[in-house]
Amino acid sequence: MSRCIVGGFVAMLIAAELLASAPPASAGCQYGGPVLSKCDGPVQPDGTWQRCVAVPHLIYSGASSFLAPEKHCDVLGPDQHPGDPGLAEPPTHID
């Protein structure tokens, strides 16, 4: 049983490390608040950029449970309206 708990914890740490790795050049991130992270990719020639948000996701595993990051991405920019309103804050590129 303790091996499963330790294994789940290690998997969560690996997933968190992947999400926390350096964003692409010309990108910015915000951390904390209601989300784990909110990162913008570089601005494209048409003025749009990709924003990815990592939120905690509760995973049930037998008699225990743990939180793992879940990543959602969408395109933002002029005349772009993401499906998730929380993804649009701030409405400008994060530098």
TrEMBL record:
Keywords: Signal. It comes from the Bacteria. Residues 1-27 form the signal peptide. This is CDGP domain-containing protein. InterPro entries: CDGP_dom. Pfam families: CDGP. The keyword Signal applies. Residues 28-95 form the CDGP domain. The keyword Signal applies. Residues 74-95 are annotated as: Disordered.
